[in-house]
Amino acid sequence: MLTTEEEPSTRADAPTPTPAPTNATPAPTPPQRPPGRLLALAALLSAALMALHAHLPNTALNLGSLFQTLLPWTGLAVPALLALAAVRRSQLAAVAVLAPALVWATLFGPTLTDKGKDRGKGTGATGQGLTVLSHNVDEANPDPAGTARALAGAKADVLALVELSEESTPVYERELAAAYPHHAVLGGVGLWSRHRLTAVAEVEIMPWTRAMRATAATPEGPVAVYAAHLASVRMSGAGFTTARRNEAARVLASAVRAEPAPRVVVLGDFNGTYQDRALAPVTSQLRSAQREAGDGFGFTYPAGFPVVRIDDVLVKGMDPRASWTLPATGSDHRPVAAALRF
Question: Is residue 203 within 8 Å of 255, Cβ to Cβ?
Fold first, then answer.
């Protein structure tokens, strides 16, 4: 008798083994970092650069001078960072933006107010002070006659003009003769005055004539007046090139230091701002009329949309009562003026 063995069951309803219980716990979730940490760091770095601008080195590409030249514009970082903080919805970054805002306000808040005590023009003729005007008239100025008439209309007592050319100098002499009976021109710089000018001399700040001094015999006493045009600066592959300007500033500073007159006015185009520490040999001896008695930043260059103040009125032994920037002429610079008291 034949018998068959039954094969193991492979039915689908066979019981499945139960997995062994485990005591494993889920991995902990890493703590969430607050958003905007990089923005906050950028805000603090911006504040540090503003606060320590005087210590930024000039060894690499003269970036310290360049940063100080554009220092007022660093305030634009504040609304930019604040907008990014709002986009990221970062309270941390928004709070950090307070740091550059406070530093900028400390540096320039007073600049935004009108510190002028009076804005009299032509006061020297009445023995009440001296109003001075400085202008880089631009060798390429297409309308020197119109520029001369505009300057005469400002009714200053002393004009300092730089970047005069052989072609334009006779035009200024002719147009300014009626209002300014006294004048002297040396090379590309000149002084026009309502008062007699004596002791006219070149200040040799460069191989060619870019500065001069004279004594203006005002009703309240003599004033040493300087007209200066420091060497231009350039952006190039070597960075912010300032070597010739800095050397001219040192020579001018030596002349001012040796000046025996108790009252000194230095007018001109310094191709640098008062904050630029490379000009400290000059600015440490003199006070800026704009900083003491001006209204706003008083930017002068370029004339169409000024972003820096490289033209200035610097004084010693006189009290700035007002400082202002005049409307654009045919030059690429705007004129600057100041009312001074003895």
Answer: yes
Axis-axis angle for helices 37-51, 77-88 (nearest 10):
170
Residue boundaries of the structural domains of the chain = 37-108, 123-341
CB 308 within 8 A of CB 69: yes
- pLDDT of 35 above 90: no
In one-letter notation, the amino acid at residue 323 is S
- 172/165 Cα distance (integer angstroms): 10
Q: Which fold has domain 123-341?
A: Deoxyribonuclease I; Chain A (3.60.10)
**Residue 156 token pair:** 């200053």
User: pLDDT category, 182, cuts 50, 70, 90?
Assistant: very high
Q: Considering the entire predicted model, what is its pTM? A: 0.86
- Maximum Cα interatomic distance, the chain, rounded to a whole number of Å: 152
Quote the tokens at residue 254. 């030596």
> Per residue in 206-228, pLDDT tens?
999 999 999 999 999 999 999 99
List the beta bridge partners of residue 184: 191
| Residue whose C-alpha is closest to residue 218's, from 270, 261, 267, 169 | 261
Neighbours of 106 (CB within 10 A): 11
Comparing C-alpha atoms, which of 201, 189, 146, 153 is closest to residue 171?
146
Q: Look-up: residue for tokens 């600049």?
A: 111
Q: Residue 308 has what DSSP assignment? A: B
- What are the φ/ψ torsions at residue 84 (nearest 5 degrees)? -65, -35
CA dihedral (302, 66, 94, 110) positive or negative:
negative
Torsion of CA 93, 99, 101, 102, to 10 degrees: 150
Residues 75-97 pLDDT 10s: 999 999 999 999 999 999 999 99
How far the first Cα of the chain sits from its last, in Å, is 144
